[in-house]
Amino acid sequence: MLGAIEAGGTKIVCAVAPKEALTQIAERISIPTGTPQETMPKIIAFFKNYQIEAIGIGSFGPIDVDPSSPTYGFITNTPKLAWKHFDFLGTMKKAFAVPYFWTTDVNAAAFGELKHGSAVGNENCIYITVGTGIGGGVVLNGKVIEGKGHPEIGHIYINQLVHDSFEGNCPYHKNCLEGLAAGPAIEARAGKPAQNLAADNPAWELEAHYLAEACVNYTLSFSPEKIIFGGGVMKQAHLFPLVREKFTELLNGYLPISQVDQYIVPCALQDNAGIVGCLALAKETL
């Protein structure tokens, strides 16, 4: 059996599945993300019920993914103060002497979509989640992209439209992509949550423009075969045609992307993208 841990800011999902059929999850649990002292024993207890060959971990971040770093495997400067500078991977290794794949939750989701979701048959994809924040994972040539750090493509700077006077609400960058286009930014402008806005609300045109501009930047930087969107905001199906239209307009024929409806797509695995990705990454370690 293979193990998976998708560590989010509000809950941590643990799952096990046979390595021959990763989408056939044998058992999964959801644990509230309390303090490490409260949460880690529950994670470890879950996996002790199984003969685990490898574990994939996709964690909220920032995290240290540099194997040469003395804090490799740590959650680093997270706003969740109880987890700041916590050795997540080291704690797991003390409990289970198996191979691990350690990465971000969005990298895991990108890999899950590549192997079992919207990017099956491809080698390159980008996964973007648009919700309370905006995060992204990148897979190129079948491998998640990491270096001294991991991609933070939800915080790229984009050109704010002149008629948009909103200052942005990213606590670090104000008017980066997350600051202008995440759920709280939509709510701050419109006065109510995104899920309560009508499909013809002008807020969606603005949202589509910013997401499309980001897609142009990702296309020019990474040359993915698919750009996959997930997260609560992207459950508004009417947003996809708007993003594709704006993307085509902004790219302006510079690159030959003809079937935009098959290029910018919703995630197929929905809320399972991260956990299936962690299982797939666990398999990679074998």
TrEMBL record:
<keyword id="KW-0119">Carbohydrate metabolism</keyword>
<keyword id="KW-0067">ATP-binding</keyword>
<dbReference type="InterPro" id="IPR051804">
    <property type="entry name" value="Carb_Metab_Reg_Kinase/Isom"/>
</dbReference>
<comment type="similarity">
    <text>Belongs to the ROK (NagC/XylR) family.</text>
</comment>
<dbReference type="GO" id="GO:0005524">
    <property type="term" value="F:ATP binding"/>
</dbReference>
<keyword id="KW-0479">Metal-binding</keyword>
<dbReference type="InterPro" id="IPR000600">
    <property type="entry name" value="ROK"/>
</dbReference>
<keyword id="KW-0808">Transferase</keyword>
<keyword id="KW-0862">Zinc</keyword>
<dbReference type="GO" id="GO:0008865">
    <property type="term" value="F:fructokinase activity"/>
</dbReference>
<keyword id="KW-0460">Magnesium</keyword>
<dbReference type="Pfam" id="PF00480">
    <property type="entry name" value="ROK"/>
</dbReference>
<keyword id="KW-0418">Kinase</keyword>
<protein>
    <recommendedName>
        <fullName>fructokinase</fullName>
        <ecNumber>2.7.1.4</ecNumber>
    </recommendedName>
</protein>
<dbReference type="InterPro" id="IPR049874">
    <property type="entry name" value="ROK_cs"/>
</dbReference>
<dbReference type="GO" id="GO:0046872">
    <property type="term" value="F:metal ion binding"/>
</dbReference>
<dbReference type="InterPro" id="IPR043129">
    <property type="entry name" value="ATPase_NBD"/>
</dbReference>
<keyword id="KW-0547">Nucleotide-binding</keyword>
